[in-house]
Amino acid sequence: MPTPAKYKSSFVNLIIDRGQYYQASDLDALDAAALASEKGGKPLVGYIGFDCTAPSLHVGSLTQIFLLRRLQQCGGKPIALMGSGTTRIGDPSDKNEARPVLTLERIAENKAGIQSVFEKYIEFGANQAKMVDNIEWLENIGWLEMLAEIGRHFTINKMIALDIVKRRLDQESPITFLEFNYMLLQAYDFLELSRRYDCNLQMGGSDQWGNIIQGVELCRRADNKNVFALTQPLLMNAAGQKMGKTAAGAVWLNADMLSTFDFWQYWRNVDDADVGKLLRLLTELPLDEIARLEALGGAEINDAKKILAGEITALCHGREAADAALVTANAQFAGGGASEGLPEILIAKSDLSNIASLFVLAGLAESNGEAKRLAKGGGLKIEDKTISDVSLPIPDNLLSCYNIKLSLGKKRHLNVVLK
Predict the structure, then answer these.
(1) How many CB atoms lie within 10 A of CB 286?
(2) Angle CA(115)–CA(119)–CA(121) in degrees, nearest 5?
Protein backbone atom coordinates (compact mmCIF):
# COMPACT_ATOMS: atom_id res chain seq x y z
CA MET A 1 0.00 0.00 0.00
CA PRO A 2 1.49 3.39 -0.95
CA THR A 3 2.26 5.97 1.72
CA PRO A 4 0.76 9.47 1.60
CA ALA A 5 4.17 11.20 1.73
CA LYS A 6 5.02 9.79 -1.69
CA TYR A 7 2.32 11.74 -3.51
CA LYS A 8 1.94 15.41 -4.37
CA SER A 9 -1.74 15.92 -5.18
CA SER A 10 -4.37 16.66 -2.55
CA PHE A 11 -6.75 14.18 -4.18
CA VAL A 12 -4.49 11.12 -4.05
CA ASN A 13 -3.31 11.91 -0.53
CA LEU A 14 -6.89 12.51 0.63
CA ILE A 15 -8.27 9.21 -0.64
CA ILE A 16 -5.31 7.32 0.84
CA ASP A 17 -5.66 9.07 4.20
CA ARG A 18 -9.40 8.37 4.23
CA GLY A 19 -9.02 4.68 3.34
CA GLN A 20 -10.53 5.04 -0.12
CA TYR A 21 -7.64 3.76 -2.22
CA TYR A 22 -7.38 0.15 -3.41
CA GLN A 23 -5.94 0.04 -6.92
CA ALA A 24 -5.14 2.33 -9.85
CA SER A 25 -4.04 1.81 -13.43
CA ASP A 26 -1.11 4.25 -12.97
CA LEU A 27 -1.17 6.00 -9.61
CA ASP A 28 1.91 8.12 -10.29
CA ALA A 29 0.43 9.47 -13.53
CA LEU A 30 -2.95 9.99 -11.86
CA ASP A 31 -1.23 11.90 -9.07
CA ALA A 32 0.46 14.15 -11.64
CA ALA A 33 -2.83 14.75 -13.46
CA ALA A 34 -4.61 15.55 -10.20
CA LEU A 35 -1.85 17.96 -9.18
CA ALA A 36 -2.03 19.74 -12.55
CA SER A 37 -5.80 20.01 -12.16
CA GLU A 38 -5.44 21.46 -8.66
CA LYS A 39 -3.00 24.07 -9.98
CA GLY A 40 -5.44 25.25 -12.66
CA GLY A 41 -4.37 23.01 -15.52
CA LYS A 42 -6.47 20.46 -17.37
CA PRO A 43 -9.30 19.41 -15.02
CA LEU A 44 -9.40 15.90 -13.64
CA VAL A 45 -12.85 14.70 -14.68
CA GLY A 46 -13.94 11.46 -13.01
CA TYR A 47 -17.12 9.41 -13.16
CA ILE A 48 -18.84 6.55 -11.41
CA GLY A 49 -21.80 4.69 -12.89
CA PHE A 50 -24.93 3.83 -10.91
CA ASP A 51 -27.35 1.36 -12.45
CA CYS A 52 -31.04 1.89 -11.73
CA THR A 53 -31.80 -1.51 -10.22
CA ALA A 54 -33.76 -0.28 -7.16
CA PRO A 55 -35.74 2.82 -6.11
CA SER A 56 -32.91 3.85 -3.80
CA LEU A 57 -29.19 3.34 -3.39
CA HIS A 58 -28.06 1.62 -0.20
CA VAL A 59 -25.17 2.49 2.11
CA GLY A 60 -22.71 0.45 0.05
CA SER A 61 -22.99 3.22 -2.55
CA LEU A 62 -22.07 5.93 -0.03
CA THR A 63 -18.36 5.22 -0.46
CA GLN A 64 -18.78 5.69 -4.22
CA ILE A 65 -20.60 8.98 -3.74
CA PHE A 66 -17.86 10.08 -1.36
CA LEU A 67 -15.23 9.40 -4.02
CA LEU A 68 -17.03 11.88 -6.27
CA ARG A 69 -17.27 14.29 -3.34
CA ARG A 70 -13.53 14.01 -2.58
CA LEU A 71 -12.72 14.64 -6.23
CA GLN A 72 -14.80 17.83 -6.21
CA GLN A 73 -13.26 18.97 -2.92
CA CYS A 74 -9.85 18.78 -4.61
CA GLY A 75 -10.87 20.83 -7.63
CA GLY A 76 -11.85 17.98 -9.95
CA LYS A 77 -15.11 17.61 -11.83
CA PRO A 78 -17.27 14.61 -10.92
CA ILE A 79 -19.81 12.96 -13.20
CA ALA A 80 -22.59 10.85 -11.72
CA LEU A 81 -23.60 8.52 -14.54
CA MET A 82 -27.10 7.11 -14.37
CA GLY A 83 -27.17 3.68 -16.00
CA SER A 84 -30.64 3.45 -17.51
CA GLY A 85 -29.10 1.74 -20.53
CA THR A 86 -26.82 -0.73 -18.77
CA THR A 87 -29.56 -1.56 -16.27
CA ARG A 88 -31.34 -3.31 -19.14
CA ILE A 89 -28.37 -5.70 -19.43
CA GLY A 90 -27.29 -6.45 -15.86
CA ASP A 91 -23.79 -6.36 -14.39
CA PRO A 92 -22.44 -9.89 -13.74
CA SER A 93 -19.87 -8.55 -11.24
CA ASP A 94 -20.13 -10.25 -7.84
CA LYS A 95 -23.22 -12.12 -9.01
CA ASN A 96 -23.82 -15.84 -9.32
CA GLU A 97 -26.94 -15.50 -11.41
CA ALA A 98 -28.46 -13.09 -13.90
CA ARG A 99 -30.30 -10.01 -12.69
CA PRO A 100 -34.06 -9.93 -13.18
CA VAL A 101 -35.01 -8.00 -16.31
CA LEU A 102 -36.74 -4.72 -15.38
CA THR A 103 -39.35 -2.92 -17.44
CA LEU A 104 -38.52 0.48 -18.90
CA GLU A 105 -41.12 2.02 -16.60
CA ARG A 106 -39.53 0.47 -13.51
CA ILE A 107 -36.06 1.61 -14.59
CA ALA A 108 -37.36 5.19 -14.98
CA GLU A 109 -38.99 5.04 -11.53
CA ASN A 110 -35.79 3.71 -9.97
CA LYS A 111 -33.73 6.42 -11.65
CA ALA A 112 -36.00 9.12 -10.21
CA GLY A 113 -35.62 7.56 -6.76
CA ILE A 114 -31.83 7.51 -6.70
CA GLN A 115 -31.07 10.86 -8.34
CA SER A 116 -32.08 13.04 -5.40
CA VAL A 117 -29.38 11.76 -3.03
CA PHE A 118 -26.44 13.08 -5.05
CA GLU A 119 -27.10 16.78 -4.55
CA LYS A 120 -26.68 16.26 -0.79
CA TYR A 121 -23.02 15.41 -1.36
CA ILE A 122 -22.02 17.05 -4.64
CA GLU A 123 -22.55 20.52 -6.11
CA PHE A 124 -24.03 20.42 -9.61
CA GLY A 125 -24.06 23.24 -12.12
CA ALA A 126 -21.99 25.02 -14.76
CA ASN A 127 -18.30 24.07 -14.47
CA GLN A 128 -19.14 21.80 -11.55
CA ALA A 129 -20.51 18.27 -11.29
CA LYS A 130 -22.67 16.75 -14.02
CA MET A 131 -25.34 14.09 -13.99
CA VAL A 132 -25.86 12.25 -17.27
CA ASP A 133 -27.53 9.03 -18.39
CA ASN A 134 -25.91 6.46 -20.65
CA ILE A 135 -29.22 5.86 -22.38
CA GLU A 136 -28.40 9.06 -24.32
CA TRP A 137 -25.87 7.18 -26.45
CA LEU A 138 -26.64 3.51 -25.90
CA GLU A 139 -30.17 3.57 -27.31
CA ASN A 140 -29.08 5.35 -30.47
CA ILE A 141 -26.04 3.35 -31.51
CA GLY A 142 -26.75 0.48 -33.91
CA TRP A 143 -25.58 -3.06 -33.32
CA LEU A 144 -23.41 -3.13 -36.44
CA GLU A 145 -21.99 0.28 -35.57
CA MET A 146 -21.15 -0.92 -32.08
CA LEU A 147 -19.41 -4.04 -33.36
CA ALA A 148 -17.46 -2.11 -35.96
CA GLU A 149 -16.31 0.62 -33.59
CA ILE A 150 -15.51 -1.22 -30.38
CA GLY A 151 -16.00 -4.96 -30.90
CA ARG A 152 -12.68 -5.30 -32.69
CA HIS A 153 -10.84 -3.93 -29.63
CA PHE A 154 -11.95 -6.80 -27.35
CA THR A 155 -10.76 -10.40 -27.38
CA ILE A 156 -12.81 -13.28 -26.06
CA ASN A 157 -9.64 -14.71 -24.50
CA LYS A 158 -9.21 -11.69 -22.22
CA MET A 159 -12.92 -11.34 -21.46
CA ILE A 160 -13.34 -14.90 -20.19
CA ALA A 161 -10.16 -14.54 -18.13
CA LEU A 162 -11.67 -11.70 -16.08
CA ASP A 163 -12.57 -12.75 -12.53
CA ILE A 164 -16.22 -11.71 -12.92
CA VAL A 165 -16.63 -14.13 -15.84
CA LYS A 166 -14.18 -16.83 -14.81
CA ARG A 167 -15.87 -17.32 -11.45
CA ARG A 168 -19.24 -17.97 -13.06
CA LEU A 169 -17.71 -20.37 -15.58
CA ASP A 170 -15.73 -22.24 -12.90
CA GLN A 171 -18.92 -22.68 -10.87
CA GLU A 172 -20.74 -23.81 -14.00
CA SER A 173 -23.20 -21.02 -13.33
CA PRO A 174 -24.71 -19.78 -16.59
CA ILE A 175 -23.66 -16.34 -17.81
CA THR A 176 -25.86 -15.06 -20.60
CA PHE A 177 -24.61 -13.41 -23.76
CA LEU A 178 -26.56 -10.37 -22.58
CA GLU A 179 -24.49 -10.14 -19.37
CA PHE A 180 -21.31 -10.92 -21.28
CA ASN A 181 -21.83 -7.69 -23.20
CA TYR A 182 -22.05 -5.57 -20.06
CA MET A 183 -18.30 -4.91 -19.91
CA LEU A 184 -18.36 -3.71 -23.54
CA LEU A 185 -21.12 -1.23 -22.74
CA GLN A 186 -19.39 0.02 -19.59
CA ALA A 187 -16.18 0.50 -21.57
CA TYR A 188 -18.15 2.33 -24.24
CA ASP A 189 -19.56 4.62 -21.53
CA PHE A 190 -16.02 5.68 -20.66
CA LEU A 191 -15.23 6.29 -24.33
CA GLU A 192 -18.35 8.44 -24.78
CA LEU A 193 -17.72 10.42 -21.59
CA SER A 194 -14.15 10.96 -22.70
CA ARG A 195 -15.34 12.32 -26.04
CA ARG A 196 -18.24 14.39 -24.74
CA TYR A 197 -16.87 15.77 -21.47
CA ASP A 198 -13.11 15.09 -21.65
CA CYS A 199 -13.55 12.59 -18.81
CA ASN A 200 -10.20 11.01 -17.94
CA LEU A 201 -10.93 8.94 -14.84
CA GLN A 202 -13.35 6.14 -14.01
CA MET A 203 -13.76 5.18 -10.36
CA GLY A 204 -15.62 2.40 -8.60
CA GLY A 205 -15.49 -0.44 -6.11
CA SER A 206 -12.71 -3.01 -6.22
CA ASP A 207 -15.11 -5.57 -7.70
CA GLN A 208 -15.41 -3.34 -10.78
CA TRP A 209 -11.71 -3.39 -11.68
CA GLY A 210 -12.12 -5.77 -14.62
CA ASN A 211 -14.85 -3.67 -16.20
CA ILE A 212 -13.11 -0.35 -15.53
CA ILE A 213 -9.77 -1.39 -17.00
CA GLN A 214 -11.55 -2.43 -20.20
CA GLY A 215 -12.68 1.18 -20.59
CA VAL A 216 -9.14 2.48 -20.06
CA GLU A 217 -7.86 0.19 -22.80
CA LEU A 218 -10.71 1.08 -25.17
CA CYS A 219 -10.00 4.82 -24.86
CA ARG A 220 -6.36 4.16 -25.65
CA ARG A 221 -7.02 1.89 -28.60
CA ALA A 222 -9.92 3.79 -30.15
CA ASP A 223 -8.84 7.41 -29.55
CA ASN A 224 -5.22 7.13 -28.42
CA LYS A 225 -6.17 8.78 -25.10
CA ASN A 226 -4.48 8.06 -21.78
CA VAL A 227 -7.11 7.81 -19.08
CA PHE A 228 -7.12 6.36 -15.58
CA ALA A 229 -8.81 3.68 -13.49
CA LEU A 230 -9.18 3.96 -9.73
CA THR A 231 -10.93 1.62 -7.31
CA GLN A 232 -11.55 1.66 -3.59
CA PRO A 233 -12.22 -1.16 -1.11
CA LEU A 234 -15.77 -2.44 -0.78
CA LEU A 235 -17.58 -1.36 2.37
CA MET A 236 -16.88 -4.29 4.72
CA ASN A 237 -17.16 -4.67 8.48
CA ALA A 238 -14.46 -5.93 10.82
CA ALA A 239 -15.74 -9.50 10.35
CA GLY A 240 -15.16 -9.30 6.59
CA GLN A 241 -18.84 -9.05 5.65
CA LYS A 242 -20.33 -6.50 3.27
CA MET A 243 -22.05 -3.68 5.09
CA GLY A 244 -25.48 -2.38 4.17
CA LYS A 245 -27.65 -5.35 5.04
CA THR A 246 -29.61 -6.13 8.19
CA ALA A 247 -32.02 -8.89 9.18
CA ALA A 248 -34.83 -6.55 8.16
CA GLY A 249 -33.30 -5.79 4.74
CA ALA A 250 -31.06 -3.28 3.00
CA VAL A 251 -30.00 -0.01 4.62
CA TRP A 252 -31.40 2.39 2.03
CA LEU A 253 -30.41 6.04 1.60
CA ASN A 254 -33.93 7.29 0.78
CA ALA A 255 -36.08 8.13 3.80
CA ASP A 256 -39.20 6.69 2.15
CA MET A 257 -37.45 3.29 2.02
CA LEU A 258 -35.86 3.40 5.48
CA SER A 259 -36.71 5.75 8.32
CA THR A 260 -34.07 8.25 9.40
CA PHE A 261 -34.18 6.73 12.89
CA ASP A 262 -33.38 3.25 11.55
CA PHE A 263 -30.66 4.76 9.38
CA TRP A 264 -29.14 6.51 12.42
CA GLN A 265 -29.51 3.37 14.52
CA TYR A 266 -27.68 1.24 11.95
CA TRP A 267 -24.52 3.34 12.37
CA ARG A 268 -24.97 3.56 16.14
CA ASN A 269 -24.84 -0.24 16.32
CA VAL A 270 -21.71 -0.90 14.23
CA ASP A 271 -18.88 -2.93 15.69
CA ASP A 272 -16.40 -1.02 17.86
CA ALA A 273 -13.59 -1.98 15.46
CA ASP A 274 -15.34 -0.27 12.52
CA VAL A 275 -15.82 3.17 14.07
CA GLY A 276 -12.55 4.77 12.96
CA LYS A 277 -12.75 3.40 9.43
CA LEU A 278 -16.32 4.60 8.93
CA LEU A 279 -15.55 8.04 10.35
CA ARG A 280 -12.74 8.40 7.81
CA LEU A 281 -14.77 7.08 4.90
CA LEU A 282 -18.15 8.70 5.42
CA THR A 283 -17.74 11.90 7.42
CA GLU A 284 -15.89 15.19 7.16
CA LEU A 285 -14.46 15.11 10.68
CA PRO A 286 -10.73 15.98 10.83
CA LEU A 287 -8.39 13.00 10.94
CA ASP A 288 -6.93 13.97 14.31
CA GLU A 289 -10.41 14.06 15.84
CA ILE A 290 -11.18 10.68 14.29
CA ALA A 291 -7.97 9.27 15.79
CA ARG A 292 -9.11 10.49 19.21
CA LEU A 293 -12.57 8.97 18.84
CA GLU A 294 -11.43 5.55 17.65
CA ALA A 295 -8.98 5.34 20.56
CA LEU A 296 -11.82 5.54 23.09
CA GLY A 297 -12.44 2.39 25.08
CA GLY A 298 -15.11 0.87 27.25
CA ALA A 299 -18.44 2.66 27.38
CA GLU A 300 -16.90 5.80 25.83
CA ILE A 301 -16.80 4.15 22.41
CA ASN A 302 -20.59 4.49 22.41
CA ASP A 303 -20.17 8.26 22.37
CA ALA A 304 -18.00 7.89 19.27
CA LYS A 305 -20.70 5.75 17.66
CA LYS A 306 -23.31 8.42 18.33
CA ILE A 307 -21.08 10.98 16.67
CA LEU A 308 -20.59 8.61 13.73
CA ALA A 309 -24.34 8.06 13.39
CA GLY A 310 -25.04 11.77 13.73
CA GLU A 311 -22.49 12.86 11.13
CA ILE A 312 -23.53 10.29 8.51
CA THR A 313 -27.25 10.91 9.08
CA ALA A 314 -26.81 14.69 8.95
CA LEU A 315 -25.18 14.49 5.52
CA CYS A 316 -27.79 12.12 4.14
CA HIS A 317 -30.97 13.40 5.82
CA GLY A 318 -30.11 16.74 7.40
CA ARG A 319 -28.86 17.81 10.82
CA GLU A 320 -32.37 18.21 12.22
CA ALA A 321 -33.22 14.58 11.42
CA ALA A 322 -29.95 13.39 12.96
CA ASP A 323 -30.57 15.35 16.16
CA ALA A 324 -34.13 14.03 16.37
CA ALA A 325 -32.88 10.45 16.01
CA LEU A 326 -30.44 10.99 18.87
CA VAL A 327 -33.18 12.37 21.12
CA THR A 328 -35.43 9.40 20.33
CA ALA A 329 -32.62 6.91 20.89
CA ASN A 330 -31.67 8.45 24.23
CA ALA A 331 -35.28 8.31 25.38
CA GLN A 332 -35.64 4.68 24.33
CA PHE A 333 -32.33 3.67 25.91
CA ALA A 334 -33.43 5.22 29.17
CA GLY A 335 -36.47 2.96 29.11
CA GLY A 336 -40.12 3.85 28.95
CA GLY A 337 -39.48 6.50 26.35
CA ALA A 338 -42.22 7.82 24.15
CA SER A 339 -42.78 6.01 20.87
CA GLU A 340 -42.98 9.26 18.89
CA GLY A 341 -40.30 9.41 16.20
CA LEU A 342 -39.79 5.66 15.99
CA PRO A 343 -39.90 3.93 12.60
CA GLU A 344 -43.25 2.44 11.68
CA ILE A 345 -44.17 -0.79 9.96
CA LEU A 346 -47.64 -1.65 8.66
CA ILE A 347 -49.01 -5.13 9.50
CA ALA A 348 -52.41 -6.59 8.68
CA LYS A 349 -54.25 -7.98 11.70
CA SER A 350 -55.31 -10.96 9.59
CA ASP A 351 -51.64 -12.00 9.25
CA LEU A 352 -51.16 -12.26 13.01
CA SER A 353 -51.56 -15.56 14.85
CA ASN A 354 -49.74 -15.03 18.14
CA ILE A 355 -47.22 -12.72 19.80
CA ALA A 356 -44.31 -14.42 18.03
CA SER A 357 -45.83 -13.60 14.63
CA LEU A 358 -45.96 -9.93 15.63
CA PHE A 359 -42.19 -9.80 16.14
CA VAL A 360 -41.49 -11.88 13.03
CA LEU A 361 -43.62 -9.71 10.73
CA ALA A 362 -42.08 -6.60 12.27
CA GLY A 363 -38.62 -7.88 11.30
CA LEU A 364 -37.32 -8.15 14.87
CA ALA A 365 -37.10 -11.95 14.71
CA GLU A 366 -36.45 -14.20 11.72
CA SER A 367 -38.76 -17.00 12.86
CA ASN A 368 -41.15 -18.04 15.63
CA GLY A 369 -38.34 -20.16 17.07
CA GLU A 370 -36.00 -17.19 17.24
CA ALA A 371 -38.74 -15.07 18.84
CA LYS A 372 -39.17 -17.77 21.49
CA ARG A 373 -35.41 -17.83 22.16
CA LEU A 374 -35.22 -14.03 22.39
CA ALA A 375 -38.17 -13.94 24.78
CA LYS A 376 -36.54 -16.52 27.06
CA GLY A 377 -33.53 -14.25 27.29
CA GLY A 378 -35.73 -11.28 28.23
CA GLY A 379 -34.96 -9.50 24.97
CA LEU A 380 -38.51 -8.79 23.71
CA LYS A 381 -40.85 -6.08 24.95
CA ILE A 382 -44.28 -4.79 24.03
CA GLU A 383 -45.00 -1.25 25.20
CA ASP A 384 -41.85 -1.45 27.37
CA LYS A 385 -43.09 -4.61 29.16
CA THR A 386 -40.96 -7.75 28.92
CA ILE A 387 -42.62 -10.68 27.11
CA SER A 388 -41.79 -14.17 28.36
CA ASP A 389 -44.22 -16.32 26.34
CA VAL A 390 -44.58 -15.47 22.65
CA SER A 391 -46.84 -18.46 21.94
CA LEU A 392 -49.78 -16.67 23.58
CA PRO A 393 -52.38 -14.92 21.43
CA ILE A 394 -52.15 -11.15 21.12
CA PRO A 395 -54.38 -9.54 23.76
CA ASP A 396 -57.54 -7.87 22.46
CA ASN A 397 -56.60 -4.55 24.04
CA LEU A 398 -53.45 -4.44 21.87
CA LEU A 399 -55.31 -5.44 18.71
CA SER A 400 -57.66 -2.53 19.26
CA CYS A 401 -54.74 -0.06 19.37
CA TYR A 402 -53.72 1.99 16.36
CA ASN A 403 -50.05 1.15 16.93
CA ILE A 404 -47.95 -1.01 19.19
CA LYS A 405 -44.42 -0.28 20.34
CA LEU A 406 -42.09 -3.30 20.02
CA SER A 407 -38.55 -3.54 21.37
CA LEU A 408 -35.67 -5.93 20.77
CA GLY A 409 -33.10 -5.43 23.50
CA LYS A 410 -32.19 -1.86 24.39
CA LYS A 411 -31.35 -0.64 20.89
CA ARG A 412 -34.09 -1.76 18.47
CA HIS A 413 -37.52 -0.17 18.76
CA LEU A 414 -40.35 0.39 16.32
CA ASN A 415 -44.07 1.04 16.11
CA VAL A 416 -46.35 -1.51 14.49
CA VAL A 417 -49.35 0.09 12.82
CA LEU A 418 -52.23 -2.38 12.60
CA LYS A 419 -54.68 -2.34 9.74
Answers:
(1) 9
(2) 120
